[in-house]
Design a protein that fits this description.
heterodimer; A: about 240 residues; alpha/beta; Rossmann fold; 2 domains; six-stranded mixed sheet; four-stranded antiparallel sheet; about 25% strand; B: about 450 residues; abc type-2 transporter like fold; 19 helices; elongated; binds adenosine-5'-triphosphate; binds magnesium ion
Chain lengths: ~240, ~450
């Protein structure tokens, strides 16, 4: 299968502090790949590098054959990134925001309208889309942003903590949206500390701690390998080693 | 009460960071120096000013009057013959500030109790506030002369003396000299009209530059604070387009507000200084003759200079905005820029750059925002080299700052750059600005 993302020996330093010490993994197209790890493990750093907004100190990151540094503009055309705690322009309405973002990606008005229509359906916000984003709850904003991230049919969606801060119902909603959209062949790279979510959502998982990947595998495979009942216990076991 | 102190301590700790203190210290130092500079300039102005008296009368009275001039703190050189025009040109070349012509038959006229006319030439070199003082000095001189003549009349005690002539025996026919050209007109009125033209520019420019800089820095900091910047940076929008669009938007809003201010200020200044409606047609003619109106070329140069100033400010503001993590830090970050704008404005208002020390002069020239302030003065003085030089300098600075700004935006510094918010007490060392400059042009592979 074609590789959506190849990360090779990736290192990143902030000043003197090395946040990533040589990380490698691959994501196949159509696959949902999750990074799990404690706070400060380096998940967001990896996602930002893949999304071309941080530059690696060394190593290679290739998205569908394109280097994220040398061919950043072309990579940006085919990915979409949803940052953790991302915000939207509060003075815009939900619909206005979708139109604005769609215009940045779309080559023509027809495509733009198609993107907006698609996103409006996915949000499930209905008439509230006509209200200012400033009046939205956290969950509504997150849904809006997630719909924005997938409306452009990206070949790789990079999603940082898709459900952080959301209640159970909203979280399930978002997970289902992600699942549904990947059935169209989109690859997803996401991060989370929520092991349950990961087990439900991901095809494969990388366990990361302190800037190093400790193990990669399917949730089932990892559970079997370590003889544990759930990912949480696997995680604790792996990190302890 | 204890809880109150806990909160007070927390607030003070948050506010007293090097980021807030350094601008305050800078302002104190810079404006302290500025005060001393202006002080010494004022002393220079109060030193006797060189004037020339052309005494065609060559009588005891004219000599006595010449003596009075030395009494009102003027350094007098007397000429007794030669063409007035020649002498005026000579005095201009020798950096004198005024010429007084006492016509032949002056003493005889005074003796006959006839009002006498002298001619005064006020030589203008700068249209700063201090530049006006020489015309005020001439007025004082004329008053002293009238007093002297009046005293003479009263001492002589001639019967049937006309009180008007006792009070005002001598009137002045005043001329204004700019460059080599002279025209009849009231110097105060002419300075007023010129100031009205040139003073609006710095005031408006100051407001506009500060506003534009604040807007663009706030727009960058706001995107950081609302966490929309990361999303934007990951979209196909080119980084160059992003920065340019932000700069253009602030520039356009700034220009619109500049136009609005200009209209408002013009009527305000007009009401202050008498306005063109109140200007006598003689002064109007004199202003034309002296070339003290901006023609198309003048407006073009001035416009270019102002535009270049705004662009430099925007480029610097983009860099400052990149340091900001949130909207509240924008205010502090923009302070150095505000000082750079206000400083030349204040200095050029009080100091005549032609006569000041070269260090101060080049210091002012080094500030890019000084050039739009000086442009109008230089255009009036026909010093186009200085105007164009200023525009070229501003263009070069814009290029440098825009390159740095583009570099910040095209690397991840736009997200990782922060100001050191170390509290006072910890060292302000490893200033991020120094680190930034060092690392900015390091090659990335
Ligand atoms: N801009 C920055 N400057 C300096 N250090 C940073 C910066 N961003 C991240 N770090 C450091 O890099 C390390 C990894 O951070 P990162 O945000 O990638 O972790 P994370 O796995 O996403 O954590 P979390 O689960 O809390 O979101 C942390 O130690 C963090 O302090
Ligand atoms: Mg994170």
């Amino acid at each position: 299968m074609e590789q959506a993302l190849v990360v090779e020996n990736l290192k990143k330093s902030y000043g003197k502090f090395e946040a990533l010490h040589g990380v490698s993994f691959e994501v196949a197209s159509g696959e949902i790949f999750a990074l799990i790890g404690p706070n400060g493990a380096g998940k967001t750093t990896i996602l930002r590098i893949v999304s071309t907004i941080l530059q690696p100190t060394s190593g290679n990151v290739v998205v569908y054959g394109m280097d994220v540094q040398k061919e950043a503009p072309r990579v940006r055309e085919i990915i979409s990134y949803l940052p953790e705690e991302a915000g939207a322009y509060k003075h815009l309405t939900g619909l206005g925001y979708l139109r604005f973002m769609a215009e940045l990606f779309a080559a023509d008005t027809a495509t733009q309208q198609e993107y907006v229509r698609r996103a409006s359906d996915i949000t499930g916000l209905g008439d509230r889309l006509r209200d200012k984003i400033g009046t939205y709850s956290k969950g509504m904003t997150r849904k809006l942003l997630l719909s924005r991230a997938v409306m452009t049919h990206p070949k790789l969606a990079v999603i940082d903590e898709p459900t952080s801060g959301l209640d159970v119902v909203a979280a399930i909603d978002i997970r289902q949206s992600i699942r549904r959209t990947t059935s169209e062949g989109m690859a997803v790279l996401l991060s989370s500390h929520n092991m349950l979510e990961i087990e439900y959502l991901s095809d494969r998982v990388a366990i990361i701690d302190n800037g190093t990947i400790h193990d990669v595998g399917t949730p089932q495979g990892l559970k079997a390998k370590y003889g544990k009942a759930n990912l949480e216990e696997v995680f604790v076991e792996v990190v302890r080693q | 009460m204890r809880r109150f102190w806990v909160i007070l301590k927390k607030e003070l700790k948050e506010m007293l960071t090097w980021v807030t203190l350094i601008p305050i210290i800078l302002i104190t130092v810079v404006y302290g120096l500025l005060g001393r500079v202006i002080n010494s300039e004022q002393k220079k102005q109060s030193a006797p000013q060189p004037v020339a008296v052309v005494d065609y009368d060559k009588t005891a009275t004219s000599k006595a009057l010449t003596g009075i001039l030395s009494g009102v703190n003027l350094k007098v050189t007397t000429y007794t013959d030669g063409e007035v025009d020649e002498i005026v040109r000579k005095v201009v070349a020798e950096k004198g500030s005024a010429v007084l012509v006492i016509p032949q038959g002056f003493e005889a006229g005074i003796g006959a109790q006839k009002p006498q006319k002298v001619q005064t030439y006020t030589i203008m070199r700068s249209f700063s506030l201090l530049g006006m003082t020489s015309s005020i000095k001439l007025d004082a001189a004329l008053n002293a002369m009238n007093q002297y003549v009046g005293d003479q009349y009263i001492k002589a005690g001639a019967p049937g003396l006309d009180p008007a002539i006792v009070r005002n025996a001598i009137t002045a026919q005043s001329f204004v000299t700019v460059g080599g050209r002279s025209a009849e007109g009231n110097p105060q009125e002419i300075v007023g009209v010129v100031m009205q033209q040139t003073m609006i520019i710095p005031i408006v420019l100051t407001l506009v530059i500060i506003m534009a800089a604040q807007m663009i820095a706030a727009s960058i900091a706001g995107e950081k604070e609302n966490k929309t910047l990361e999303t934007l940076l990951s979209t196909p929008v080119g980084r160059g387009s992003l920065v340019t669009a932000k700069m253009m938007a602030s520039g356009i809003v700034a220009l619109i507000s500049a136009a609005a201010y200009m209209v408002g200020m013009k009527s305000y200044m007009g009401s202050l200084l008498g306005g063109s409606g109140g200007t006598s047609s003689a002064s109007g003619q004199a202003i034309q003759q002296l070339g003290l109106v901006l023609d198309l070329r003048g407006y073009l140069l001035l416009g270019l200079s102002v535009f270049a100033g705004i662009m430099v400010a925007l480029a610097i503001a983009v860099i400052l905005g990149a340091f900001a993590e949130n909207l509240s830090s924008v205010q502090v970050l923009i302070t150095p820029l505000m000082m750079m704008v206000l400083l030349p404005y204040l200095i050029t208002m009080f100091v005549d750059l032609n006569s000041t020390s070269p260090i101060l002069k080049w210091f002012i020239y080094a500030i890019p925002f000084a050039h739009p302030f000086l442009a109008a003065q230089y255009i009036f003085a026909r010093n186009f080299t200085a105007v164009i030089g200023g525009i070229v300098y501003q263009g070069a600075l814009f290029f440098v700052f825009a390159t740095i700004a583009a570099r910040i935006f095209s690397t991840d510094r736009i997200l990782t750059m922060k100001l050191n918010t170390a509290r006072v007490g910890s060292s302000p060392g490893n200033w991020p600005i120094l680190r930034l400059i060092g690392s900015l042009f390091k090659r990335h592979k």
